[in-house]
Design brief:
Length: 160
């Protein structure tokens, strides 16, 4: 993780995750083993991204901006729950080795498109404005220290 602006780092992570999901979609009917690998990397990566936001970014933004109850981070947390539900629906199909997850994938992509746009256009730039270089460095360090078991979970357990 670099010491770049939050917006740069998190937008790059969105792009990385999008690429993993596209790989899953492209391979699920031709090479399910590779598709599953791409999906699990996507799932764990997205879950890590959400933990970073909810444990580190959002609390710091709320503290520095003074916007807590009813602010944009509350909306983002609600959307994270919906995204998680879609992620688990797809994961269930992957566990069953069932490539017919198009409907679930479409729902997830619709949520992510809207969600990521709000983060990239509004929230991340706002975070960059309200934190100091020292706070940003401390935030990146806090993200590195989050234990893997916080986000590397499948259906409530650590087993893929």
């Amino acid at each position: 993780m670099s010491e770049a602006k939050i917006s740069v780092t998190f937008e790059a992570d969105h792009d990385r995750l999008d690429s993993l999901f596209t790989s899953f979609q492209e391979q699920k009917r031709t090479d399910f083993a590779k598709a599953k690998e791409a999906f699990l990397a996507f799932k764990f990566g997205l879950q890590r991204h959400i933990v970073w936001e909810e444990d580190v970014l959002f609390p710091k933004w709320e503290e520095n901006s003074g916007m807590m109850e009813g602010g944009p981070t509350q909306v983002m947390r609600t959307e994270h729950r919906l995204i998680g539900d879609c992620l688990e629906a797809i994961h269930q199909k992957v566990q069953e080795q069932n490539p017919d997850s198009d409907r679930e994938e479409q729902r997830l992509l619709e949520l992510l498109k809207s969600h990521n746009m709000k983060e990239e256009r509004i929230l991340y730039p706002s975070i960059d404005q309200v934190i100091s270089d020292e706070e940003r460095a401390a935030m990146y360090q806090a993200m590195k220290e989050i234990p893997e078991e916080r986000y590397r979970v499948c259906c409530g357990s650590e087993r893929p």
